[in-house]
Design a protein that fits this description.
Layout: H1 16-40, E1 43-44, E2 57-58, H2 61-83, H3 91-114, H4 118-133, E3 142-145, E4 148-151, H5 156-174, H6 180-199, H7 202-222, H8 231-249, E5 257-258, H9 260-265, H10 267-281, H11 295-301, H12 306-330, H13 334-349, H14 355-368, E6 384-389, H15 394-407, E7 412-419, E8 424-431, E9 443-451, E10 454-463, H16 470-490
Parallel strand pairs: 3-5
Antiparallel strand pairs: 1-2, 3-4, 6-8, 7-8, 7-10, 9-10
Helix pairs in contact: 1-2, 1-7, 2-3, 2-7, 2-8, 3-4, 3-8, 4-5, 5-8, 5-10, 6-7, 6-8, 6-12, 7-8, 10-14, 12-13, 15-16
Length: about 500
Amino acid sequence: MLFLAETAQGGAAELVWPFLCSLITALSLTPLFRRMAGPLGLVDKPDGHRKIHADPVPRVGGLVLMCGLTLTTALWIWWQVVTNSGLLPPVGRMASLLGGVAVLVLVGVVDDRFDLRGRHKLFGQILAVTLVILPGGLQINQIEFMNRSIPLGPLAIPFTYFLFLGAINAANLLDGMDGLLTSVGLVGAITLAVLAYLTGQQITLVLAVAMAGALLGFLTYNRPPASVYLGDSGSMSVGLLLTMMAVNLERKNDAPLPLALPVCLLFLPILDTAAAIIRRKLTGKSIYTADRGHLHHILAMAGWLPAHVMLLVAALGLVTSTALILALRWQDDRVAWLTLVVMGLVIVGLDLFGKSECRLVLARVGQAFRYPGQTGMESGKSGMFICLQGSGPWKEIWQELLTQAGELNLQAVFLDVNMPVVHESIHARWTKAGGSLATGTCWKIELPVLQLGMVVGRVTLQGDPQDEEVWRVLARMQPLLAKFAALIQAQQPVLPPVRQLA
């Protein structure tokens, strides 16, 4: 790897003005867009269920980021033409890359305003990624993993789309606390700027420096307590830009893309998204179901202030970025992968995040091998019970449900509750051993669990029509279900405890 970039002939000082240009643009435009957000409807309104901030907050991060990048890049290209520096990049290709970002910002703005359906937003994301991959020339033909090059062949295009779309949506999911994703993006942009300088990647260098300046300027208003949010337009753009620059970094001579490169840059968004998918799939929910089990929610409930979460995320990003730079400098990606594994174990081991998801996975593995896993989930007569979040008296309610199920000779009882506003989430399952569920003759009733007029869960009962009539089951269960409903209604929104850090 080259230690001096062939395109940085003007020295590091030439990079200062693009950074300052983007920084000043963000500092100047953010207050303007913030004032315009209300009349345009680009605000994040509290809903009393998942969004519990006090007042509507403008969502204009994508517009600020796009303006900073476009203005800085245009001025930089103009300067190269005026000075005849010989560093002028392919303008058409640069336009395709920025065009993809612009399309994604537009999709995000429309989503922030009108709340697009998932498939419509995905269509817009695919269109943006197509502009980046095809005219922009960022198709990934081979990857590098554990120092081995792996040709992708016919899987090249699908894998490239998967990587870009995954990064976009992972970044979007993590954006849920003041300054959080902005800090991740800032650390990632600085890392890419360093790597681009070392490897002589001109386009990546300019974009990374401009992105760092824009995010730093935006962070002035987005840091806790935030007066403006990134919104979907900003969060998706951060994911796209980091991935786009990471892929472009290793584009020379069709070199394989070190898979550790985008994974290190987006480690926390990837970890958070993987945990969300595991949590939702293994509890029978849609992967689009909103909850408060994300990294920032868990840390907030553990007593971390938003400012401390932002600093923690930045520190973790610096660790992964340092490992990434060393891995690419030494041409040994095992350094990066080892760092990621150790960091993941530390995060779970210190109970910062991910312990509930690990318990779910271990319990399901134990079930698959008919082994009662020692994972906090009880087996046998008690079925499976896990409290993903919260501290309500749900275990006692579950035991009473099972007692009545035994008396009524029910075949199965399921309990699922997801109340983001009070940070309570329960997942429980019980099936009668040797029962008649497999015959397909059992009746099934799903009773909605309501709180403040919203469905927050369900109780599912299944029984054999030859054992007990449905109306008798409901009559016997009614007092217990009424007690459960009263407990649900009594839950109040909780404020996270404040942890005083030394």
